[in-house]
């Protein structure tokens, strides 16, 4: 699996860089807005169910991508320690 992880402060252009990188390389783009926007339809930002579902969706998506060896670029706009990728240690290298 090839993984490109971009992280940094809010509003510095990570998603823009990720979109351009995806165009240039053909990598799939997975950015945090995909999970945040989905969960915001059901729960307020920052509530316990919101945090649990966002983290759960991210973990499940990245785990499945890893196991099927798809290529993607992951844009991370949140603080890294908020995310728990407990299953990624089993990824094939």
Describe this structure in words.
- The chain has 93 residues and is an alpha/beta fold.
- The chain has one domain: P-loop containing nucleotide triphosphate hydrolases (Rossmann fold, 3-Layer(aba) Sandwich).
- Helix content is 44%, strand content 15%.
- The protein is built from 3 helices and 3 strands; from the N terminus they run E-H-E-H-H-E.
- The protein has helices at residues 14-25, 32-40, 48-67; strands spanning 3-7, 28-31, 72-76.
- Strands 1-3-2 form a 3-stranded parallel β-sheet.
- The longest helix has 20 residues, at 48-67.
- It is globular and about 35 Å long.
List keywords for this structure.
alpha/beta, Rossmann fold, globular, 3-stranded parallel β-sheet
Summarize the model shown.
This protein is of the alpha/beta class and 93 residues long. It has a single domain (3-90), classed as Rossmann fold (3-Layer(aba) Sandwich), CATH 3.40.50.300.
Helices and strands, with pairings:
Blueprint: E1 3-7, H1 14-25, E2 28-31, H2 32-40, H3 48-67, E3 72-76
Parallel strand pairs: 1-3, 2-3
Helix pairs in contact: 2-3
Q: How many domains is the backbone divided into?
A: 1
Give the DSSP E fraction (strand runs of 2 or more residues).
15-25%
| Average pLDDT number | 75
Strand order of the largest sheet: 1-3-2
Distance between the termini: 7 Å
Order of helices and strands: EHEHHE
Summing up helix and strand content along with how strands pair, one would put the structural category as alpha/beta
